[in-house]
Specification:
Blueprint: H1 4-16, H2 19-26, H3 30-44, E1 49-50, E2 56-57, H4 59-79, E3 90-95, H5 97-102, E4 114-119, H6 125-130, E5 136-139, E6 148-162, H7 164-170, H8 177-182, E7 185-187, H9 194-203, E8 211-213, H10 217-225, E9 231-234, H11 239-244, E10 248-249, E11 256-265, H12 273-286
Parallel strand pairs: 3-4, 3-5, 7-8
Antiparallel strand pairs: 1-2, 5-11, 6-9, 6-10, 6-11
Length: 290
């Protein structure tokens, strides 16, 4: 039998980043929080928190937090059927930065509780589901992951874009393999493979791109506008830039379409049904449909 007061302490530490903040949120002393965590780690036989700084849950700790989140979500569903009210559930979801910046945010008010968003690349969000660390995710894999339902959302269209001046300087003779090897690219982070995928498709060979690492959607697009490099920008976020000539495609009619799927853990799918409907509705409004 799991010690749920101890799980609550672990969850608050994970969300608030310190023993002190967790103690304040739960209305107990910091020593009580420390004792709960010590007892829980002894019972589980593994370390659940990296004491830092900063304090952060280990993967084993995250799995326990996810378990508590799902229990609270199920309890909230029962409470909605007339049972005693449960604590406000936390819904942990993996989303892509580009989806969050463009269309997904409009659906999130339908979440039946507090949100804990994990922002990760669409090609890697599935791993959060497989590890049991989130209840739902926007992924690039149809799946479904075992124990999950999968809903096709449509495709996010990415365009290889740069400023007119950048393209004139680096691609005066066209977008060739040699030019791509020299021209700076912009990459969101180490997991972002879109620039490499497009360059390999365009050049017919694998290319080690020189690249800036800029891990924000807004900063990524601004760097392209300022002529720092070229990158795969979501078409739905740069329409105004394209219309006014601030950004120009490196090659006309050469997009990269990334299919997206909403995968949700089956055990909490009924509780998350309103959010699922909102996600699908928001996606249909902007993503490319089959």
């Amino acid at each position: 039998m799991l010690d749920y007061p101890a799980l609550a302490a672990l969850s608050e530490i994970a969300r608030r980043g310190s023993f002190e903040a967790a103690a304040h949120a739960l209305g107990v002393t910091q020593s009580a929080i420390s004792q709960r965590i010590k007892t829980l780690e002894a019972r589980m036989g593994q370390v659940l928190l990296d004491r830092g700084p900063p304090v952060a849950p280990t993967e084993a700790g995250l799995r326990l937090v996810a378990h508590l989140d799902q229990v609270r979500l199920l309890e909230a569903g029962i409470a909605g059927q007339g049972a005693a009210p449960a604590e406000t559930p936390v819904i942990r979801i993996a989303v892509t930065a580009d989806s969050l910046a463009s269309w997904a945010i409009s659906a999130l008010p339908e979440a039946p509780g507090l949100l804990d968003l994990v922002v990760d690349d669409q090609d890697h969000a599935e791993s959060w589901l497989r590890a049991g660390l989130v209840s739902a995710a926007i992924t690039a894999t149809r799946g479904p992951v075992a124990g999950c339902d999968s809903h096709a959302l449509g495709a996010m269209r990415y365009l290889p874009t740069g400023s007119p001046g950048f393209i004139a300087r680096h691609f005066a003779d066209g977008v060739t393999a040699d030019a791509l090897r020299r021209a700076p690219a912009i990459t969101f982070n180490a997991k972002d493979g879109l620039q490499n995928q497009w360059a390999e498709r365009q050049a017919g060979t694998r290319i080690a791109l020189p690249t800036h690492l800029i891990p924000t959607t807004q900063g990524f697009a601004e760097a392209a506008r300022l002529g720092m490099g070229w990158g795969m920008n979501p078409e739905i976020l740069i329409g105004d830039d394209l219309r006014h000539g601030r950004l120009v495609p490196l090659v006309a009619d050469a997009p990269l379409d990334v299919p997206l799927y909403w995968q949700v853990a089956r055990i909490v799918a009924p509780q998350l049904a309103p959010l699922t409907r909102a996600i699908r509705r928001a996606a249909r409004a902007v993503l490319i449909q089959p």
